[in-house]
């Protein structure tokens, strides 16, 4: 098969190929995006806008929304499951499935770019920017309970008809994702993938209430406290049923 985008090539394969090109040399924390990166990112966004649940052989679920897979000792099925599609050194791609009422708690993506597209259902995404960052651009290593200044950028709802939600190392890098009005699923690309050995571990945060902060801040500016992974959140795994991706 020719490397071009033919009618025989699945849109999932085309997305993966474009992600590989887009994130070959992405801008780091504090760096200006190059024209080439922005052009390739735009192509990726266009492809992600097109993809639908049927392209991944996903059927919308009812009720709880999970398949019963569990890595919990109690045997209770997880509120969120993940379907792995592919991963390289440059990016990872997969599908998150949330049960009705489930949330992926507020978390960060240190030095990472991301793009997500709803496959079915509706999600609410609350996006934050960190107001301070370390000089070397790496994730701040701090003890649990450390406070971070942040600004709430947006709270938006997305459906399968919406365009993709995009994050970068500097913009909308911290977010919380809530399932709205039933189970939901979204395709997710992270670049580069999480890697604790290279300073890209996932950190969870709690937004402090006014009562927890001694002085009043501007409404859009908040204090975030780093916390352990919430006990009511964990992510299971299940097989990806869609077209195979070869890179």
Please name the defining characteristics of this protein.
247 residues, mainly beta, 10-stranded mixed β-sheet, globular, disordered N terminus
What order do the helices and strands come in, and which of them pair?
Blueprint: H1 11-22, H2 35-50, E1 80-87, E2 92-98, E3 103-107, E4 113-130, E5 147-158, E6 165-167, E7 174-191, E8 204-207, E9 221-227, E10 235-237
How would you describe this protein?
This protein is mainly beta and 247 residues long. It is 11% helix and 34% strand. It contains two helices and ten strands. Strands 1, 2, 3, 4, 5, 6, 7, 8, 9 and 10 form a ten-stranded mixed β-sheet that branches. A hairpin with a 4-residue loop joins strand 1 and strand 2. Helix 1 runs antiparallel to helix 2. It starts with 10 loop residues before the first helix and ends in a 10-residue tail after the last strand. The N terminus is likely disordered.
Outline the biggest β-sheet.
Answer: 10 strands, mixed
Roughly how many Å apart are the termini? 13 Å
Oligomer: single chain
Label the structural class: mainly beta
Shape: globular
Portion in beta strands: 25-35%
What share of the residues lie within helices?
Answer: 10-25%
Number of DSSP-assigned strands:
10
């Amino acid at each position: 098969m020719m490397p071009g985008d033919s009618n025989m090539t699945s849109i999932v394969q085309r997305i993966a190929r474009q992600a590989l090109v887009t994130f070959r040399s992405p801008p780091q924390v504090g760096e200006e995006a190059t024209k080439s990166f922005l052009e390739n990112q735009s192509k990726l966004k266009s492809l992600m806008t097109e993809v639908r649940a049927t392209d991944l052989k996903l059927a919308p679920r009812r009720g709880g929304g999970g398949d019963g897979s569990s890595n919990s000792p109690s045997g209770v099925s997880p509120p969120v499951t993940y379907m792995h599609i592919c991963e390289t050194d440059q990016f990872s791609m997969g599908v998150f499935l949330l049960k009705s009422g489930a949330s992926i708690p507020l978390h960060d993506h240190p030095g990472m770019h991301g793009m997500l597209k709803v496959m079915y259902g509706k999600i609410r995404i609350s996006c934050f920017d960190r107001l301070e960052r370390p000089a070397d651009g790496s994730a701040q290593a701090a003890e649990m309970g450390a406070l971070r200044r942040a600004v709430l950028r947006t709270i938006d709802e997305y459906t399968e008809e919406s365009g993709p939600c995009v994050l970068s190392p500097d913009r909308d890098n911290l977010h919380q994702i809530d399932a709205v009005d039933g189970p939901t699923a979204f395709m997710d690309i992270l670049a580069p993938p999480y890697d604790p050995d290279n300073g890209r571990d996932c950190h969870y945060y709690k937004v402090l209430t006014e009562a927890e902060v001694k002085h009043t801040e501007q409404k859009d500016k908040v204090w975030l406290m780093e916390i352990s992974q919430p006990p009511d959140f964990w992510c299971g795994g299940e097989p990806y049923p869609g077209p195979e991706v070869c890179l």
